[in-house]
Amino acid sequence: MAKIFTMKQVTIIVPNGYANLASIAGTFQILTHANAYWQKMGNKPMMEIRIAGFVTELTLDGGFFSIYPVNIEEIKKTDLLIIPSVSHVYDEVIKTNAALINWIWKQYKNGAEIASICTGAFLLAATGLLEGKTCSTHWNAAADFKRLFPNVTVHADKLITVEPGIYTNGGAYSFLNLVLFLVEKYFDRQTAIFCAKVFQIDMDRNSQSPFHIFQTQKNHGDELICQAQTYIEENLGERISFEDLALKLSASRRNFDRRFIKATGNTPVEYLQRVKVEVAKRTLEKGRKTIFEVMNEVGYSDDKAFREVFKKITGLSPLDYKAKFHQEPILV
User: Fold this and answer.
1) Do strands 166-169 and 160-163 pair parallel, antiparallel, or not at all (unpaired)?
2) Are 99 and 161 in a shared domain?
3) 52 bridge partner residues
4) Strands 47-53 and 70-71, sheet pairing
5) Is residue 298 part of a domain?
6) Per the structure, how many domains does the chain have?
7) Residue ranges making up the domain that contains 234
8) Is the CB of residue 56 less than 8 Å from the CB of residue 17?
9) How confident is the model at residue 286, as a pLDDT?
């Protein structure tokens, strides 16, 4: 007996007051092109795509743009639900969108798959559907995410994470790769390649690590650890003994490590490595020094160890990183 084809209902939601226009419009455009190409190849339409929310109009970007979503309460069932990126007032976003969060939860329980874009993961996590699971979000939002949702494992290095019926992605315009992932899943590889070519998107990216900027946050309130962070940052070229540093700060090594992890989210060794690599990245981007000079500048004498730590944190070798982000100035 032939399988009955059913067109997929896709809903791109519009949160109240805090949606990101690019992630809504970009997702809509790519899925619409995929649907048109699919039909051009002789198939029935795969998707009916709607933009919906509890608001009737949303003005964005200083009033230059407006979105007029359909009434989300008229949508009884959807097969794929896409949550766009939201602004960085996360507590307020969650508070203002309680009804939408409940609607998302009901749709998932009714069989819908969910894809969240960038900081849209905050709305998704607020449903409780990510409890005990993994997700990605913008690397710059990972600390806030962990604060609000400690029972969710954040992989801020990953571009896309997959849980049963739930897909999340990293930051900003990396949502284009998530949409290609969805195109390949719902249509096929050929359609995804077509969309990649039309929109000129690099396919098969799987990490946002090369774009991560390590920020040495010191607003945690632990003065002793602030002193330790400052010491590390000012002595990158030296061999640092954390036993001696803890003693210098009148703390036991065990207590020092515990407080350091609580304050920064990293062990002292991890923090030192990340600060060293961040300085190395900035120097490589300028392109004036060799990799050997950069390595020595941040306190590494073993080039193998430097390359291994650098690649672990950025996903690229020092040479590949320099090639990717350094360009000689164009002379006019």
Assistant:
1) antiparallel
2) yes
3) 13, 70
4) parallel
5) yes
6) 2
7) 223-325
8) no
9) 84
Structure tokens at 117: 């874009």
End-to-end CA distance of the chain: 68
136 and 18 inside one domain: yes
Measured torsion, CA atoms of residues 60, 65, 67, 68, in degrees rounded to the nearest 10: 120
Domain closes at, from 176, 208, 240: 208
- Phi-psi bin for 204: left (phi > 0), alpha (psi -120 to 50), beta? left
At 139-170, the pLDDT tens digits run 889 889 999 999 999 988 888 999 999 999 98
User: How would you label 132-160 residue by residue, b for 16+ Cβ within 10 Å and e otherwise?
Assistant: eeebbbbbbbbbbbbeebeebebbbbbbb
pLDDT of the residue at 23: 94
Q: Which residues contact 101 (CB under 8 A, 6 or more apart)?
A: 94, 123, 126, 127
Per the structure block, which two tokens stand in for 165?
């019926």
Q: 161 with 253, same domain?
A: no
Using CA atoms, how far apart are residues 192 and 170, in angstroms rounded to an integer? 19
Asked, for residue 330, whether it belongs to a domain, the answer is no
Do residues 93 and 126 lie in contact, with contact meaning Cβ atoms separated by under 8 Å? no
Which amino acid type is present at position 145? F
Which stretches in the chain have pLDDT values below 70? 1-5, 204, 206-213, 327-332
Kindly state whether residues 179 and 236 are assigned to the same domain.
no
Asked if 282 and 322 count as a contact pair (C-beta separation under 8 A), the reply is no
Taking the C-alpha atoms of residue 31 and residue 10, their distance in angstroms, rounded to an integer, is: 9
| CA separation for the pair 274, 269 (Å, rounded) | 9
The predicted pLDDT at position 211 comes to 65
pLDDT value for 330? 47
122 in the same domain as 234: no
> Which residue bears the tokens 């874009």?
117
Query: Are 20 and 153 in a shared domain?
Result: yes
Residues 101 and 139 placed together within one structural domain of the fold = yes
Burial of residue 220 (CB within 10 Å: 0-12, 13-18, 19+) is: middle
In the numeric block, which tokens belong to residue 218?
A: 């010191």
Domain boundary among 177, 208, 239: 208
pLDDT in tens, 193-214: 999 999 999 876 766 666 666 7
